[in-house]
Amino acid sequence: MASTHYLLANPCAGQNIGYLRLAVVGDSAVGKTLFARQFVETLPEVLSHDWEPLKPRRTNEDDDDAEEDDDDEDDYVQTQELTERFSSTMMEIPWDNMDADDEAPARNLVFLDTPGYGSVIDARTNFALFMNHVSQTFEEKNSKISPFIEVTNNELMRSLVTGVGAHKFIDVCFYLIVHRLKPLDIEYMRIISEKVNVVPVISKIDTQSEQDVQQLKVHVLKTLREQGVSIYTFRIDYDRLIHMAETGQQGGPPFAVSNVPPKPSSEDPLDQIPFTHAMNELPLLRKLVLETQINNVRQFTVKKFINWRSKQIALQQQQMQGQQQQQQQQLHAPMPYFPVLQSLQDLAASAPTIA
Prior knowledge:
The chain is α/β, with parallel strands linked by helices. It has a single domain, classed as P-loop containing nucleotide triphosphate hydrolases (Rossmann fold), CATH 3.40.50. It contains 10 helices and 10 strands. The chain has helices spanning 32-41, 66-73, 123-143, 153-160, 183-192, 210-226, 238-246, 282-292, 294-331, 337-350; strands at 5-6, 20-26, 48-49, 83-88, 91-92, 104-105, 109-113, 172-177, 197-202, 255-256. The chain has an 8-stranded mixed sheet, sandwiched between helices. It has a two-stranded antiparallel sheet with strand order 5-6.
């Protein structure tokens, strides 16, 4: 079990975030785990988290093994399975022990780290892991709603759109891409968007020029619009998002995120980057998700569940009607007269003759 690491922060700063579940999805080696860590660990409101601490870099130039150790630390660590990481932005009395007097970290901010779909031969394998997890949260919640009591959509919205942990749905799925948008990315975002708010993110922008990132943003938005993929746009329409991307404005998806901390200034020509990379939009993305748009995010999450539930109810009704029709047909079906008559004739023919 991962240990919990406590941070110094204002204990009242994260109360408004409430319970929220996030996920990061994408190809292998696009920086999903590091993105999740940066999203959480640099959040001032976080009081504690269970991410394993990163090893500090060794800077002793006199140590012959320093360079070798740095290489080992930079080795890519692949996520092999779905992994939930918990962070706390508030303290509360544990709900399973209401007699307790001491508050404990609420573990209210959950980040689901997923294996990249390119780490296996069949990309559908790892993608199915994530979608099965999402579907299971819907099915578990639906099973707790009584089938004998009619519940309106408005009642579901009022009871589920809260920050007190009324469900375990994934509220936001950050879909990471790097240098290009692949056909597989388009189809996966289409499938995910039926049950989760999808926010595309361009990662590793420190390896791309500002112009390249801007062109990629425009390409991603135009392609997703043409393909009919419904991403979470933070209440901005596609035309406006495309205009913002073309003019270099920030504030909407896809967000450009750097996976490395900014390097200190250096006069060494070898340390100079040959291009100007795009602005890191992680602070803006985090502010939109956790502050300004958090209520709207929760509403869209519950709407997706309600739409899924409505389809399930309609499917069940169709199945019940089909079974009833089949029973009615069997009930009113004519008696098989001729086979019965033939059986009686055969029985009479085989009976012994009385002399």
